[in-house]
Amino acid sequence: MSAPPEAELKPAVTPLRCLTGSVLSGAFAWGLYRLTAAIAVSFAAKPLLSSSAIAQRISAAVRTLVLGVAALGTFIFAFVALGLVLLALQLLFQSLMSSNEPTP
Questions:
Q1: What pLDDT, in 10s, does the model give residues 42-89?
Q2: What confidence tier does 2 reach under pLDDT thresholds 50, 70, 90?
Q3: Residue 11 neighbours by CB under 8 Å, 6+ apart
Q4: 22 and 85 Cβ atoms separated by less than 8 Å
């Protein structure tokens, strides 16, 4: 039996592709980090001017949610970038080890 058509169209995983993806993911992580820092500074500079306890609680929950989502996106892209760098190193190491093996 032959391989399914989807398997034939998949490009090979190479260290260069991994490093390219890592650079892109790292750039997104850096941008989201800057956005997260700007959001935190903005929230700290603008306190809530309401005397209502319910409004203060809702405001604190929304601010925490917004900052948490931005931080989560930052760390997801950062971990993906790190994982792709490690995968590139693993692929490079495997290719070096397979080229050093003597053929029987």
A1: 999 988 888 899 999 999 999 999 999 999 999 999 999 999 999 999
A2: low
A3: 17
A4: yes
Q: What's the one-letter identity of residue 26?
A: G
**What DSSP character marks residue 101?**
S
Q: What are the backbone angles phi and psi of residue 102, rounded to the nearest 5°?
A: -75, 145
C-alpha 104/C-alpha 40 separation (Å) is 62
The verdict on pTM exceeding 0.70 is yes
The type of residue at 64 is T
DSSP H helical ranges for the chain: 5-9, 15-45, 53-100
